[in-house]
Amino acid sequence: MTQNATRLRLSAACIYELILLFALWMLCTWIFVRLFGQATPPYKRLQLQFFLWLVTGAYFIWCWSKTGQTLATKTWKIRLINQQNSTLSIKQAIIRYAMASLSILICGLGFIWALVDKEGLFLHDRLLKSRFIRMA
Q: For 3-48, what is each residue's pLDDT tens digit?
C-alpha cells in the first residue's frame, strides 16, 4: 500500500508551488501587457485575471494528467493519484482544478479542510477520491 504524503510535505510543496506560480504569472502578465497594453481599466484587469487563471489551469491540468506531478511535487517527491492509483484523467484534472479554484474563492475552505481531515486530504481530493502519495 502506498503512503499518503504528510501535511508537512504537502505544505512545503504548496509554498514552493506558489513561488513557481508567481514567476509564471509575472511572465504571463508581461506577455499580456506587451500584447494588449496596461491592464489598469477594470475590464482589462478582469481579462488579465482570467488569462492567468487559464494559464495556471493549463499548467496544473497538464501536470496532473501526464505524470501526476508538478515541478514542486517532483521536488518534494509526492505524486497525485486517483482511486485506481494512476494519474488523473484530463476530466478529473479539470474538475479538480475547478473545485480548487472554487475553494480559493470561498476563503480557501477546501484547503483548510486538510487540517481536520483524518487523512489530511484537501476537500476536493476527498470528493474526487484523489490523494497525494509519497514517492520512494
A: 999 999 999 999 999 999 999 999 999 999 999 999 999 999 999 9
Residues constituting the chain: 136
In a domain, 43, yes or no: yes
Cell numbers found for residue 124: 476536493
Question: Is residue 77 over pLDDT 90?
Answer: yes
CA-closest candidate to residue 89, choices 132, 53, 134, 130: 130
Q: Which domain holds residue 31?
A: 7-134
Q: Where are the alpha helices (DSSP H) in 2-130?
A: 7-36, 42-66, 71-75, 90-105, 109-112, 123-128
Asked whether 70 and 59 are in contact (CB, 8 A), the reply is yes
- The answer to the question of residue 1 being in a domain is no
The dihedrals phi and psi of 120, each to the nearest 5 degrees, come to 75, 25
Q: What is this structure's pTM? A: 0.93
Domain assignment present for residue 2? The answer is: no
